[in-house]
Structure formats: structure tokens, C-alpha cells
Write the C-alpha cells for this entry.
Amino acid sequence: MIKKIAVIVAAGNGARMGTATPKQFLLLQQKPVLWHSIAAFQNAFEDIEIFLVVSQEHFPVAEEIRINSLRPSQIKIVPGGKTRFESVRNGLAGIKENEAIVFVHDGVRCLVSVNLIKNCFSEAQKTGSAVPVIPVRDSLRMHSAKGFEPIDRDKINMVQTPQTFLADILLKAFKQDQDKSFTDEATVVERTGQTVHFVPGEDSNIKITRPIDLLLAEAILAGRK
């Protein structure tokens, strides 16, 4: 059976949230946001291994979350870097197997569903990669010398996580030097010449970045129950 590994990145400070506590540690239905993200993967696969990437100053709170997770022994805490690229690379450093499926997930996307995780797993098994995307529904404009010009929203998609790859593809990609054009794992992999495959994401798979997102997450979780 192919191994399943999740690298959950939660090393940010969450400045946009405007709170002293980083957003990944804020409470959502009496549990930290990050706990919910971890639980989704543990609910999806009983045999998953998780590398939890956090800044070293937050190791104590991360350890508390690990201990209170569904299966603490599956989780290893690793230090984050100065950038997302460095943080993901740190998380990948603990992976020794090329025969594995690796999920890279934002720790603050705490509403990711078991169904989406399993869909990404199945697609990555078949094609080598699976990156969830959703269509843009708002009108868009781009700043230019002429002012704000409209953009065809039908040509735009918003990218989510978990970005999922065969381990050998992802490990090879992260041997590259960091580049400012690397905005996510898909852009890193594409630089190696690999084609990235996309799957439908979920509207509820929101990223907690602002106070209103936390309120929305509360409502979504209440609706699920």
C-alpha cells in the first residue's frame, strides 16, 4: 500500500488577522484552527504520517495540539523557515520514501473535507499530481497604464490546498533554489518541466486570514453538524 504523508504548513504570523495569537492557533469551536486541519487528514487516512511545520517559538503550543490530536504518534513537529518555500522544504526533509503520495496543506485551511483529500490522493496516484482549484465568481480588473482594465474571469481560477504529488516529483522539485515566482508547490513543480494536474476544489475550503473568515468557518462547521 502506498504511503500517505501530509506536510501541514503553519509557520506564519498571521498579521492580517490583527490578533496577538497567530491565526492557526485561534480557537474554532473550542479547538485551535490547526487542530481541525490535522483532524481532516487523520480522518481521511488512518495510516497517514504528518509533518507539522511551525516556527520554533510556537513549538510548545504545537506540541499541545499534537498531543490532543486523534493519533499523536503520527505527527512530527519541524521548524519553519523564513518563507513558505523554506518551510515546505523543511517539512519534506523528513521524507525518505519516493514511493509515497505527499499532501502539502495550509494549516489555516481548516475546513478541508475528507472527500477532497481522498480525491486529491486518487488523482495523484493516476497522474502524479492533484491541485484543487475553484472558479472566480466576482468581476475582476487589473491595474495598468490605462487604469483598471477588466479581466475575463472565465480564464481565472483560485488555487487551494492540499497540493498533492508523488513524492519523487515533489522532492526533486524542492532541490531547486528558491525563486520569487514560486507562489505555491505547483509553480515549483512546473519549473522542473512537470505538468501539474488540477481537480475541482471546494468553496468551503477557505483560508483563515481575516476575522470574518473565522466567523464564516464557525458557521460552516455548525452547518456540517
About this structure: The mean pLDDT is 95.
